[in-house]
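[Discussion] Sanity-checking designs against the backbone

I'm trying to build intuition for which residues belong where. Below is a C-alpha cell string of 422 positions. I'd appreciate it if someone posts a full sequence so I can compare it with mine line by line.
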C-alpha cells in the first residue's frame, strides 16, 4: 500500500464504525479481522452458511450460485419476503439493527454484503465478532464519493477533476476553475442518477445549490468528461491474494439507469488491457476481498477515468451468468470463502438488457409466444426475474442476457423487440 493511501486510511488502514475509524494492519486489509474474538481468514467449505447483509436481487443471485456449490444462506433485510429471502432464510430487520446483525452472525460462518449502503458501523461491529472477509474499511470508503476519489487516485488511477463543495461561493469558484458542463453530486447516497445535477450554465448554479444543499450531506463537483464510451471491469480477489478479472463490459445508460451491457466491449485491445490493469491495481491497493466493480469513462483519445467503485456483485456483471465459464456470483462466493477463483473466460458474445418496472408487462407477453426473430438472428435470450412484489417505473425487476454469435445480432434483437419500447 503506498504512502498516500496509508495516510488516507489512517496510517496502516482503517476500520470504521459508529465511533470513528481506527487503524488496522496487513491481516485486516487482506480480509483477516484482527480485533479480539474475530475469526482469522481460512477456507470456508460447502456446508457452511453464508450470511448476507442485504436481501435484494444481488443476494438472491448470490444464493442461487452458492447453493449449487453446497452452501446455505441467511439474509438480513427490512423488507419481508425480499428477493433473497425467497431463496434463503431471512431475518427481517433494519440494516442498523445491531441485535439482528448479531443474530445474523450467530447463524453464519462468513458474512458478506450485497450492496454498499448497508450500515458501515454494523459491518465494523461484525468484524470484531464474526468473520467478514471484505472488512468495513473499503465499505466505509466507497460510501462517500470524496473518500472514494482520493482512494482511487492513491491507487494510481485517474478520476475526473473534482472539488469539494461547501457553499454556493465555492460552487461558483469550482465551476469557473473546472469549467462547465459539470456534475454536482451528493457525497453519500444516490444511485441510478439520484443525487446528481448536471450544470451547463452559470445560471443553474444557485438553483442546484439550493436543492442539493437540502440533502444534508457533503457535495462534490465533477468536471463533465466528454467520453466516447462507458465501460466497467469486475475484479475478484481472495484473502490469499489471487485476483482475476472479467472481460470489460460496455455500458449504455438511459435516464441514468443502466440499460445495456455489451460484451465484448467495443473498444481497442489496448483500452481493454489498461482497464483490466487498473481494476487489478485498485483491488490490490485497496485490499478488496470478493468482487469490486470499477466503472470507467473512455475519453475520445482512449484515456480512462475511473468514475465509481462498487465492492460487491454489479449490474454490469450480470452477463457473466450464461456468457462466462464462471459467473460473478459464483466468483464472489469463491473469493469470500478463500477458494481458488474460477476461469472468467467468455464463452459467447452477449448483451445484457435490464428489465425495469415498465418492461415487465411486455416481457411477460413475449414469454408466452414464439419468437421467430430470435431464430432468424441466431440469438438465445435468457430471462432472470428478481421476484420483487411491485413493478414500479424505473425499478430494476430483472434482466435478459442475449447470447449470440456476435453482439450486433444481440443488439438487433433488442432493438426489434417490443420489450423495451415503453
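Best answer:
Here's mine. Compare freely.
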Amino acid at each position: 500500500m503506498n504512502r498516500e493511501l496509508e495516510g488516507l486510511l489512517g496510517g496502516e488502514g482503517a476500520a470504521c464504525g459508529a465511533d470513528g475509524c481506527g487503524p488496522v494492519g496487513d491481516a485486516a486489509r487482506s480480509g483477516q479481522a484482527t480485533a479480539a474474538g474475530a475469526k482469522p481468514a481460512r477456507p470456508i467449505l460447502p456446508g457452511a452458511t453464508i450470511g448476507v447483509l442485504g436481501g435484494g436481487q444481488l443476494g438472491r443471485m448470490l444464493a442461487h450460485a452458492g447453493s449449487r456449490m453446497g452452501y446455505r444462506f441467511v439474509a438480513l433485510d427490512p423488507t419481508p419476503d425480499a428477493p433473497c429471502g425467497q431463496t434463503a432464510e431471512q431475518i427481517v430487520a433494519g440494516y442498523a439493527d445491531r441485535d439482528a446483525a448479531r443474530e445474523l452472525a450467530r447463524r453464519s460462518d462468513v458474512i458478506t454484503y450485497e450492496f454498499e449502503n448497508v450500515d458501515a458501523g454494523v459491518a465494523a461491529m461484525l468484524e470484531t465478532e464474526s468473520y467478514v472477509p471484505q472488512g468495513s474499511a473499503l465499505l466505509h470508503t466507497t460510501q462517500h464519493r470524496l473518500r472514494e476519489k482520493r482512494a482511487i487516485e492513491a491507487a494510481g488511477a485517474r478520476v475526473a477533476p473534482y472539488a469539494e463543495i461547501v457553499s454556493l461561493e465555492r460552487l461558483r469558484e469550482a465551476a469557473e476553475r473546472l469549467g462547465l458542463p459539470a456534475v454536482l453530486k451528493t457525497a453519500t447516497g444516490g444511485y441510478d442518477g439520484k443525487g446528481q445535477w448536471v450544470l451547463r450554465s452559470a445560471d443553474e448554479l444557485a438553483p442546484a445549490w439550493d436543492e442539493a444543499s437540502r440533502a444534508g450531506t457533503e457535495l462534490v463537483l465533477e468536471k463533465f468528461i466528454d467520453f466516447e464510451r462507458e465501460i466497467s471491469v469486475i475484479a475478484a480477489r481472495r484473502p490469499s491474494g489471487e485476483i482475476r478479472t472479467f472481460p470489460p463490459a460496455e455500458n449504455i445508460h438511459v435516464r441514468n439507469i443502466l440499460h445495456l451491457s455489451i460484451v465484448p466491449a467495443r473498444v481497442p485491445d489496448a483500452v481493454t488491457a489498461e482497464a483490466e490493469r487498473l481494476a487489478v491495481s485498485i483491488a490490490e491497493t485497496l485490499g478488496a476481498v470478493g468482487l469490486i466493480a470499477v466503472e470507467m469513462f473512455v475519453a475520445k483519445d482512449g484515456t480512462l477515468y475511473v468514475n465509481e467503485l462498487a465492492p460487491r456483485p454489479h449490474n454490469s456483471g450480470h452477463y457473466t451468468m450464461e456468457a462466462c465459464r464462471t459467473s460473478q456470483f459464483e466468483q464472489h462466493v469463491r473469493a469470500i470463502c478463500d477458494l481458488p477463483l474460477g476461469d472468467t473466460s467468455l464463452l459467447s458474445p452477449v448483451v445484457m438488457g435490464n428489465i425495469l418496472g415498465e418492461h415487465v408487462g411486455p416481457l411477460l407477453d413475449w414469454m408466452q409466444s414464439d419468437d421467430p426473430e430470435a431464430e432468424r438472428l441466431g440469438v438465445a435470450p435468457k430471462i432472470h426475474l428478481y421476484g420483487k412484489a411491485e413493478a414500479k417505473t424505473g425499478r430494476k425487476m430483472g434482466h435478459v442476457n442475449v447470447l449470440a454469435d456476435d453482439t450486433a445480432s444481440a443488439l438487433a434483437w433488442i432493438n426489434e423487440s417490443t420489450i423495451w419500447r415503453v
